[in-house]
Amino acid sequence: MSVLSVRDLTVTYYTQAGPVPAVRGVDLAVDKGEVLGLAGESGCGKSTIVNAILRLVPPKTKVTGQILLDGEDVTAMKPGRLRAVRWSGMSVIFQGAMHALNPVQRIGNQIAETITIHGQADEKGAQVRAGALLEQVGLPPRRLRDYPHELSGGQKQRVMIAMALACQPDVVIADEPTTALDVMVQAQVLKLLKELQRELGLAMLFITHDLSVLVEVCDRLAIMYAGKIVEEGPSVEVFRDAKHPYTTALSGAFPQIGDRRFRMAPSGLPGDPPFPGGVPEGCSFHPRCPLAFDECPTVEPELYPAGDGRRAACLLVPRGERTPVAP
Amino acid sequence: MSETMPAVSSPLPNAREPVLAVRDLHVRFAGRVGLWQGLRGAKPADARAVDGVNLELYPGEVLALAGESGCGKTTLARTIMGLERPRSGDIFFEGKPLGRGTRMLREYRRRVQMVFQDPTAALNPRQTIYESIAEGLRVHSITRGSGGESEEQLVARALSAAGLRPPERFYLNYPHELSGGQRQRVVIAGALVLDPEIIVADEPVSSLDASVRGEILKLLLGLRNELNIAMLVVTHDLGLAWTIADRVAVMYLGRIVEIGPAESVLTNPIHPYTRALLKVVPEAGGIDRPFLAGEPPDPTSIPPGCRFNPRCPEVASGAAEAAGVLPACQKQDLGLQELRAGHFAACHLMSREAGVESAPAPPPLER
Amino acid sequence: MRPGTIGPPAEAPTPPPDEDVRVPHEVLLSPRRIVWARRKRAFQRTARTYRKSTMGMIGLAILVFFILVAVFAPLIADRTTMDPTSPTTGDAYEPPSAEFWFGTDNLGRSIYTMTVFGSRISLTVGLAATLISMSIGALIGIFAGYYGGWLETGLMRVTDWFLVLPWLALAIVLASLLGRSLSIIILVIGITSWPGTARIVRAQALSVKTRPYVERSRALGASNWHLISHHILPNVGPLIFANTILTVAIAILSETTLSFLGLGDPLAVSWGTILEFAFSSGAATTGKWWWLLPPGLAIVFVVLAFTMVGFALDEILNPKLRER
C-alpha cells in the first residue's frame, strides 16, 4: 500500500521569461516502511517535487497531477487540512537544514514549537517529547537548552531529524540531508536515518545527487534528469547495472576506490545539465549522451520496462541493446 | 632541511628536485575570549591550524591533500598561496626560500596559481570573462607574451586550453551567464594565462554538478600531462584522489599523518585514521561500519602524544596496549616515518610492527 | 544505426545567447573597447530595470523638470521682476494674476521669478554640498573598510565625532564668525553629512573585501591599490551613487533650513530665503498664501523626487536588496 503516491506530476513556474516546466510528468510511489531514493543534479526538478508535494510552490505556479498521501489528494486539500497534514502527515528535512534553525531560540523550544502548533501536546508535554526525540537521534536531553551555534554541523542535522519526526509523520522527505557534512559525520547520520526509518516504519523519500549514498540507504532508486524520471528500480541493481547512460555517468562520478577503471581516468559528461527552460528536443539527454544515435534528437523515450521491477527511458532499451558499462 | 623526511622519489624519473617544499610550517589563528570569560581568567586558545608540516611537491605531479574539515588542509594551501601568513616555518620554491621581499613574492605569485572551490564567488560579478582572465596579466604588467603575443591572444589561448571554444564567444559574458562548469573553466583559464608551474586547487569540483566533475578533472589531468604543471589538490573526497592523484597526503589536526603513492595509501593504508576514513566511504552494501568515536577534532585543544590517540580504533580495541605502544601513543608526539617504499605514516603501532623506531615529531613552535 | 554516431560535441557548448550583445564580437579585439562595451551593457541593463520602477520614473520626471527650470531660468522668467528697483515689479502683496503668476511679495517682486531662479541656488548648493560629503565619506569608508586595524579604528572614531556634531549649532556659529554666505552653508552641510555615507561605504567595503574574487586577485599578486580600484570601488560604487542621490535631498533640505533661519546669503535667493522673507513679513498670519506655497511646494517636490529616484536606484544597485 503506497503511503505516498505521485501520479503524472507536472510543475510549471511562471517567470518573467515565460513558463518554465520544472517537472514534466513524474510518477512516484513510496510504500510504508520503504525508502525511495531520488537522484539528480541541479535543474532536474527534485527540489521542486518536494515543494510541490507540500504545496510550498510560489503562487503563480501551475501544478497538475495527483499527489496522494494515504489516499488523500494533497492538491485538493483545503488550507486547514493542508496545515494539519504538513508535518504530522508528512515532514521534510530540508536542504541546508543547518541554517533552518532559529539562532536566537533554544533548540528545545524549536522542537517543542512544532509539537504544540499541531496541538499534539501542551507546552510541558511537548518539552518532554522533545527530550525523548533528542535521545532518539543520539543527543543527550540536556542539549535541549543549547542554542544552535553551540552545536556542530552533524548535531544540528540530528536536531533537524528530530524536528521532522516530532509530529509522528507517516512520510519523511529528506532533501540532501548529508551534503554539507564530513564523511564520518555523514555515515553516522545515514546510519541514524536508516535505523529510525526501520524502527518507526516510516516511508521515506531520500533526495540527493550522490548516488553512492543512495545505494546505502534506499531500497529503490529513481534517477531524474530535466524534469523527468529516466530510470528506476531496486537500488543495488540500478547502481551496478545501469540501463540508462545518464545513470552510468552519474555513478561514474563517485568511483569506488580500488576500481581500476577510474584510476587516472575521471569520467564525466560534456556540457551541463539543461536549465529547466532549455530542455533539448527528443530525448532530453541526447546532446550529452555517448551512445546517442539518429533517432534520439527526434523521439522522446518513455519509461520502458527494463527487467524485474525496473524501467528506463532510453531508446536502446526496447531495442534490447545493453548499454556498455562505464569507461 | 629536516632530516626526518628524506626526499621521496618522485613519479617522474628525471625530476628529483621538488618544485615546492614546505618545512616546519606552523600557522596559528589567534584565539579570542569573550569579555566575561576574560574577566574570569580564561585565556584565549590559539587554533593550531597547521602544526608542523613538511611537504614536497615535485614537477608535474598531482598531490592530493585529503582530510576532513578542520584538519588544516585548506589553511595549508592558502598559506602556500601567500593568503595566510605562517607563524613560523619556510616555503621553498625551486629550492630557494621565499623571502619577504615583494619582488620575489610577485614572481612566485605568477608561477603558483590557485583554483578556488566556488567558481561563482571567485569571479567578480561585474567583470566580463575577458577581464577576469586578463586580470592576471595586468596585475603583473604583462602586455606581450614570450612569443610576442598580444594580451588578447594570451587570453584566447588560455580560454581554449581550458576547454572554452571558440574563445571569442565568451569575452563579453558575465559569470552569471555561464553554467557552473563553465565558470570553473574560466577560473582555470585565469590561472593558466600566467603559464604557472604549480596550480593549487581547493576542492575544485565539490560545488559543481556530479556529471560535470569528470570533465573538469579530465581538464586538470590534461594540463598536467601536456604542460607539466604540478598540482596540489585539496579535497575531502578520497574518491577524487583515487581518480587523479599520483600521491596522497592525509591530514589530521594540522599534521600530515600519512603520505605516499595514491594506490598504496588508498588501497593499503597504514595509518589507523586513513583506514577509518576509507572504511566509511559509502559503497553498495550496508552502513554498519565502525565509526570513530569521540569528539570531532578541535584545533584549539590538541591532545598530548599522538594527536589521534583519543579516537584511535587501535587504542580503543586494546591493540596498542597489547603491542606495548600505548604509553608512547599517549605521551610521545611523532613525525612521519617511511614504512614502505615512498610511503610514510606517523603511527607508533605501525612503526613497532615494521620494526622501526617512530620518527621524532617536527620541532614545536619556538616562542 | 550504431549507437555513438552522434556523439557529444567536440567543444563545450556555447553559452545561452544574450540579447544585450549588440556589438558583434569580431569588432571587440581591443581590451579598451571591451571595457566600454561592458560599461554600456551594464548601463543599459540598469536603465531597463529602472524603467520598470514607477516610483523611479515619476521621481526622475520631476527631477528633470526642475533641472530644466533651473537651467533655462532666464528664458522662462524675467530676472528684472526680482529687482525691487526695477519698473517691471508690481505692487506689494499682489495675489496671483495673469501678469504675476504667483503674485508678488512685500517689495513687489515676482514670486514666480524668485521661485524659478531660486531653484538654481537650492539645487547648486545641494549638489555642491553632496559632492563634498560624498567624496570625504566614500574615501574614508573605503580606506577604513579595506585596511582595517588601527586605520579603521581611527577613521571610525573620527567619523563618530563628526556624526554627533550638531550641524545647526555649527552653522550658526560659523555664520556669525565668518558672515553669511553660500560657501559657508555648503561647507557646513558637507562636513556634517559625510559620516552617514562613510559608515555605509565601510560596511560594504568590508563585505566585498572578504569575497573570494578579491582573494583570487590577491593570490594573483595584485597590490592593494589594484584591489581597491578594480574590485572594491566598482562594487561599492553603485551603493555610493544611490546614497548620494538621497544625500542631495537631505542637503537641499538642510540648505532650506539654514536659509530659513536667516543664515543664507540675502543676495542669493533660494527657496529657503523666500520662505524666510515670507515668514518675517508675517505672510502666514496675514493670509498671503501665494508667497509661501510656491517655494514650499517646490522644496517638497524636489526632495521627494530625489528620494524616489534614490530609493529606486538603491533597490537596483544595493546587492543586499537585490539578493532575493
Helical run tally of chain B = 15
Beta fraction of chain B? 15-25%
- Summed over residues and divided by their number, the pLDDT of chain C gives a mean of 81
Stated plainly, the CATH topology of the largest domain in chain B is called Rossmann fold
* Number of H/I helices of chain C: 12
Distance between the termini of chain C: 49 Å
State the secondary-structure class of chain C: mainly alpha
Number of strands of chain C: 0
Distance between the termini of chain B: 20 Å
Kindly state the percentage of residues in helix of chain B: 25-40%
CATH class of the largest domain in chain B: Alpha Beta
| Sequence stretches where pLDDT stays below 50 over 5 or more residues of chain B | 1-14
- Write out the CATH superfamily name of the largest domain in chain B: P-loop containing nucleotide triphosphate hydrolases
Q: Percentage of helical residues of chain C?
A: 55-70%
- Biggest sheet details of chain B: 8 strands, mixed
Describe the structure.
- The complex is a heterotrimer of chains A (327), B (367) and C (324).
- Chain A has 327 residues and is α/β, with parallel strands linked by helices.
- Chain A has one domain: P-loop containing nucleotide triphosphate hydrolases (Rossmann fold, 3-Layer(aba) Sandwich).
- Chain A has helices at 46-53, 79-88, 107-117, 123-136, 153-165, 183-200, 211-217, 235-240, 245-252; strands at 2-15, 18-31, 35-39, 62-69, 72-73, 90-93, 171-175, 203-208, 220-225, 228-234, 304-305, 311-312.
- Chain A has an 8-stranded mixed beta sheet with strand order 6-7-8-3-9-10-12-11, sandwiched between helices. A 4-stranded antiparallel beta sheet of chain A has the order 2-1-4-5, with helices on one face.
- The longest helix of chain A has 18 residues, at 183-200.
- The two termini of chain A are 40 Å apart.
- Chain B has an 8-stranded mixed beta sheet, with helices on both faces.
- Chain B is globular and about 65 Å long.
- Chain B starts with 19 loop residues before the first strand and ends in a 7-residue tail after the last strand.
- Chain C is 69% helix and 0% strand.
- Residues 1-24 of chain C have low confidence and may be disordered.
- Chains in contact: A-B, A-C, B-C.
- At the A-B interface, α6, α7, α8 and α9 of A face α7, α8, α9, α10 and α11 of B.
